[in-house]
Amino acid sequence: MNTITTPPHKIIGVAVIWNDQQQILIDRRRPEGVMGGLWEFPGGKIEPGETVEECIQREIEEELGILIEVGERLITIDHTYTHLRVTLTVHHCRWLQGIPQPLECAEVRWVNLDELDQFTFPEANSEIIAALRVVGSGGR
Q1: Phi and psi (nearest 5°) for 101?
Q2: Cβ burial, residue 91 (10 Å; 0-12/13-18/19+)
Q3: Superfamily of 13-139 according to CATH
């Protein structure tokens, strides 16, 4: 008997963090593990009882050691990989203080919007980049 297994579903809060130079913070996943070595917008899984905004703030502090202000929602994306279904709720964020450190990733980097093409992101992130291009930095 065939049972169709649906991949696990994770709801993720994602931060597009802008600095005063209109640059965006991206981080590179550690080489081991799923989608290792790819670049991404930082964020993480929403815990029970947590709002998206609280999740994003907590994850950014845990992963990068910086304080941010979570702003408007940019986009929500549903994407199914072979091993996982994700719902990415993406918010514009503003860097407030601290120096980003790769606490839970391989590398962090500030980049301009037009430099994003030079980095390899997981498939679902292409929609975030497309949405950013539409609003530009004026959407903050």
Answers
A1: -125, 145
A2: buried
A3: Nucleoside Triphosphate Pyrophosphohydrolase (3.90.79.10)
CA angle 80, 86, 31 (to 5 degrees): 90
Please state the three-class secondary structure of the chain as a single string: CCCCCCCCEEEEEEEEEECCCCCEEEEECCCCCCCCCCEECCEEECCCCCCHHHHHHHHHHHHHCCEEEEEEEEEEEEEECCCCEEEEEEEEEEEEECCCCCCCCCEEEEECHHHHHHCCCCCCHHHHHHHHHHHHHHHC
Asked if residue 48 lies in contact with residue 134, where contact means CB atoms within 8 angstroms, the answer is no
Would you state the structure tokens that stand for residue 26, as one six-digit string? 């991206």
Residue 66: both structure tokens together: 């910086």
Is the pLDDT score of 62 beyond 60? Answer: yes
Cβ–Cβ under 8 Å, residues 40 and 69: no
Q: Give backbone dihedrals phi and psi of 20, rounded to 5 degrees, phi first.
A: -70, -15
Short-list 17, 28, 40, CA closest to 91: 17
Per-residue pLDDT reduced to its tens digit, 77-105: 999 988 889 999 999 999 999 999 999 99
